[in-house]
Amino acid sequence: MLDSVNGQTEVYGIIGYPVKHSKSPVFQNAAFNHLKINAVYVPFSVKPGELGKAVDGIRALSIKGVNVTVPHKEEILKYVNEISEEVKYIGAANTIKNIDGYLIAYNTDAYGFIRGLKEIIRDISKNKFLILGAGGASRAVVYGLLNEGAEKIYIANRSIERAEKLISDFSELNRVVKDILIPIRLDYIPDILDAVNVIVNTTSVGLKDEDKELFDYNLIKKDHTVIDIIYKKTPLIKKAEEIGCKTQDGIPMLLYQGAKSFEIWTEKDPPVEIMKENLLK
Q: 93 with 118, same domain?
């Protein structure tokens, strides 16, 4: 347990840069304590260019598992022994399990997003989505939505080529993916807003209050559901609340992806309510 670290204590953590702001240690350690697992979860700051050394350290120090955050989610795949099914499509991992030096990469972001989404949308298959961004987080969100049978998904990005590449990669999932996924430029968003029910920001825009809007947020309608995977009240969420929309920030996704990671590492049911309680503190 965290309050009695000894020679038997297993080490877990999160690697990223920067990583000091991470809330994961708060709820992961609470979970270990609650289940009386002799383990500790700590942040590891790993600068770009140092990831290979960090992975060597995971093996050498017998660190049992890590979460992976920006900017390493894609590059980490170069250094693992095996990747899970969802990682093949998403192209990024956020969870690594170490079995005696054999590293397996998973992506629990898709699971975390969908479980959080189901708290506010009962039937995902009856909705049409606008996804802002085409990076690693977007790929996880799209993977989850496709598996849940979303009716239509518009992917808006500054570079439409990146959105098209995402669609091309996912076309291997099934033959109708290209009928579901539609790439658009950011400046085309006003033309399709009436065609979607749910708006999801997967970019980092909004992390800083001075960030420019991705589109004119005044165009959002009251019947839109607006989600931002950043776990703070961003300008997008604030505007959507003003308009009267149903909204969700990134806290549910953070919680549930972490709970799934915990399950992968420990093969135990995560104490989700305990994790949530400590995260919200």
A: no
The model carries a pTM of: 0.94
What is the bridge-based pairing of β-strands 65-68 and 152-157? unpaired
Catalytic residue among 73, 97, 239, 260: 73
Q: Which of 107, 123, 148 is the last residue of a domain?
A: 107
125/71 same-domain check: no
Q: Is 271 left (phi over 0), alpha (psi -120 to 50) or beta?
A: beta
Give the count of beta carbons closer than 10 Å to the beta carbon of residue 19: 20
- The helix/strand/coil state of 201 is strand
What is the total count of domains within the chain? 2
Give yes or no for a contact between 84 and 114, defined as CB atoms under 8 angstroms apart.
no
Q: Does residue 73 carry a catalytic annotation?
A: yes
Report yes or no on 257 lying in a domain. no
Is the Cβ–Cβ distance between 249 and 231 less than 8 Å?
yes
C-alpha torsion angle, residues 54, 52, 89, 112 (rounded to 10): 10
Q: Is 259 among the domain residues?
A: no
Domain membership of residue 206 as a residue range: 111-252
**Domain end call among 107, 139, 164:** 107
Structure tokens belonging to residue 171? 């076309």
Mean pLDDT, each 10-residue run in order, the chain (281 residues): 79 95 96 97 97 98 96 96 95 97 98 98 95 94 95 95 91 82 96 97 91 96 97 95 98 98 98 97 87
